[in-house]
Amino acid sequence: MAFAYAGRLARVDLESGSVRKESIVEEDVQSWLLGSGLAAYLFSEELKPARSALDSASPLLVFAGLLTGTYAPAAARSSWCGRSPLTGIWNEANVGGHWGAQLRLAGFAGLIVTGWASSPVYLWIHDGEVEIREANHVWGQGTFETYRRLREETDPRAEVACIGPAGENLVRIAGVMTGGQEHNRAAARGGMGALMGSKNLKAIVVRGSDKPTYPDADHFRTVVKEANAAIRAKSEGMSLTGTAGGIPATEHYGDLPLKNWREGSWPEGAKAISGQTIRETIWTRDTRCFACPIGCGKAVEVTGGPYAGVWGEGPEYETLAGFGGNLLIDDLSALAAINVRCNDLGLDTISTSGVIAFAAEAMEKGIILPDDVKGLQLTWGAPEAVLTLVEWIAHRKSLGALLADGVRTAADVLGEEAESFAIHVKGMEVPYHDPRGFVSIGLNYATASRGACHLESLSYWRGYGAEWPGWQEGPYDRFASDESTVRLTIDFQDLMAVYNPLGLCKFIVKGGVGPSQTVDLVNAATGWDWTADDLMRVGERIFNLKRLINLRLGITGADDRLPRRFLAEPRPSGTAQGVLPDLDRMLPLYYEMRGWDEKGRPTPERLRELGWEA
Fold first, then answer.
1. How far is CA 168 from CA 31, 79, 147, 201, in A?
2. What percent of the chain has pLDDT over 70?
3. Helix H or strand E encompassing 145
4. Between the CA of residue 527 and those of 72, 213, 463, 508, what are the distances in Å?
5. Helix (H), strand (E) at residue 129
6. Which of 9, 188, 263, 261 is nearest to 113 (CA)?
7. Do the bridges between strand 18-23 and strand 8-13 make them parallel or antiparallel, or are there none, so unpaired?
8. Is residue 375 over pLDDT 90?
9. Pseudo-torsion of CA 35, 40, 41, 47, nearest 10°?
10. Considering just the CA atoms, what is the radius of gyration of the chain in Å?
């Protein structure tokens, strides 16, 4: 039976071993879509703020998007949602690859997992059935071996999402990995790997033979074909060099982090670790997610030097910016080795590189002493020390036990001086785009739903010259802390708020797909008759719902802040030299434009306008 756009969800209680299947209410889909939108709604309905993230009753909500599994452009994504073990607030870790499509083809739009299994288990989901299976034989294994073994015992075509030792050890920066060594993709941010580990849940394996149907398949095919052609035409650079191809440009624009966000320029280093250099040296083939017209993934293999034999999915922009720029490592082979090791251990490379850069500065300042790290020589540009710390973090050994809980916790332990260079927002390590290079991304970090998250806005794309006729076009000042920057941030937040619920990759937006083109895909797939304004209204509703969740979890307007380094320490060189975002000016404007009060709370009037009572 072909899946409907609403579909079913499965509630799995690992403690009792029960599985309950439910139809998803179509009216809820019209209000919240699927993916992280419906997940946030269901989470809010059952939220108990006093329940910690790692309580056995704390739910893990895993949902495919509305279009995931269709042949809409890059309709591959799934959202891994719940209360973050890292930040304590709402979290959604989104991932591409092929897992989400297989969940839909297996007969489910989503899963809600609660309880604690008395011994390790994994879920085997296939053609409408959900089985809870014993996983002692893969507990302790890395994600690559787990992927291989669970495919062998279920279906060689199955897709596996699993945790590594980091998740098992409740490392709060652990992610969930899919695709194995050959095509690794990560639901990385916010500690969803620890949430799985707290339930003794090693993996979720999916395989299905269902097929989607459409109100008018020929029309949908035509809309998709036209969209794919336009996306490919604007994504040639991404197709050739992947996300890492942006490294030289981010360095030029003052967007690339350097030495725990302290330096301003690193042109030769950026060139050495760029996607262009990857293409010329260690690249072996392109990889792509389900239904993707871009193909930004780059498989790599190191054939010489001390890291010979390293192979797998190549490092993406964020990994290279974090372990490369932020730690000043310009050895591309070493960075490939660090990336592969993080993937196998199940670590978020953004947070892991962020806490290691924090530790390096703490050692430089004498806050962490050599005796505290067994004599490890953690200095800038030292890949072997970084590889050692990656292992320590995943296994909570030595200094790794402290860093495993994130930079906010580490700074709390080390004291006030360390807090001055702990780069996070609401406990989430900052991804690698600098608010001093693009001011709007700083406002987004301060207000984003899961803490510091570039993916909740991506407004900095305007600073690189991207335009969307009829939506975002014309002159743009990337350094302005004014009303136009606030409006830009909000508009991008509202559009991006529908992308995880739709299951679409945000790179198609970079490929020229704006609100009008997005809603065309939605209507063609579902038979709805929405306008672009309807879509943006749903995005605004979803964004406000997550704000309400976080308010219930203890967030206030006082938490909408940036690290001191971004507000008081300008970059010392480069094209963004001397720039600082004026958050004190922008934040009141943001609240006003959002229809929030002066404490950052959505007003009853604004909530009624968005379709529900306060």
1. 36, 20, 15, 9
2. 99
3. helix 143-153
4. 14, 11, 36, 22
5. strand 129-134
6. 9
7. antiparallel
8. no
9. 140
10. 22
Long-range contacts of 17-22 (CB under 8 A, 24+ apart): 17/132, 19/130, 19/132, 21/130
C-alpha–C-alpha distance, residues 110 and 20, integer Å = 12
- Residue 210 neighbours by CB under 8 Å, 6+ apart: 1, 2, 3, 104, 105, 106, 107, 127
> How many whole angstroms separate alpha carbon 357 and alpha carbon 355?
5
Contacts of 430 by beta carbon, 8 Å cutoff, 6+ apart: 261, 354, 423, 424, 445, 452, 563
Confidence class of residue 236 from pLDDT cuts 50, 70 and 90? very high
Q: Is 584 helix (H, G, I), strand (E, B) or coil?
A: helix
Give the pLDDT mean for 251-267: 98
Residues 6 or more apart whose CB falls under 8 angstroms from that of 102 comprise 69, 158, 159, 206, 207, 208
529 pLDDT above the threshold of 90: yes
DSSP string, 226-249: HHHHHHHHH-HHHHHH-GGGGHHH
- What's the rounded mean pLDDT across residues 534-554? 98
**DSSP secondary structure string, 236-305?**
HHHHHH-GGGGHHHHHHTT-S--TTTT----HHHHHHTSHHHHHHTTEEEEE--TT-SS--EEEEE--SS
Q: With a cut of 70, say whether residue 4 has pLDDT above it.
A: no
| pLDDT (mean) for 22-46 | 97
Closest CA to 387 of 306, 314, 487: 306
Check: CB of residue 371 under 8 Å from CB of residue 346: no
Q: Count the residues in the chain.
A: 614
What does pTM read for this prediction? 0.98
Strand partners, 11: 20, 112
Q: Say which amino acid occupies 174.
A: A
Q: Is the pLDDT of residue 3 over 70?
A: no
Q: Sketch out the chain's domains with CATH numbers.
A: 8-207 (3.60.9.10), 239-425 (1.10.569.10), 439-609 (1.10.599.10)
Nearest to residue 282, comparing CAs of 232, 237, 244? Answer: 244
Do the beta carbons of residue 432 and residue 385 sit within 8 Å? no
Residue 340 has pLDDT above 60, yes or no: yes
pLDDT of residue 2: 56
pLDDT in tens, 36-45: 999 999 999 9
pLDDT one-digit tens code per residue, 428-452:
999 999 999 999 999 999 999 999 9
Mean pLDDT of 146-157: 98
Residue 525 · residue 504 · CB < 8 Å: no
Task: Write down the pLDDT at residue 614.
Answer: 47
Tokens of 102: 């297989």
Q: Cα(146)–Cα(267) distance, rounded to whole angstroms?
A: 39
Residue with tokens 């060139």: 271
For 572-606, write each residue's pLDDT tens digit.
999 999 999 999 999 999 999 999 999 999 999 99
What is the pLDDT at residue 370? 87
Which pLDDT value is given to residue 1? 40
Q: Which helix (H) or strand (E) holds 13?
A: strand 8-13
Cα of first residue to Cα of last residue in the chain, in angstroms, is: 40
CA-closest candidate to residue 340, choices 194, 202, 173, 182? 182
Instruction: At 339, list the tokens.
Output: 């990336």
How many other C-beta atoms are found inside a 10 Å radius of the C-beta of residue 133? 15
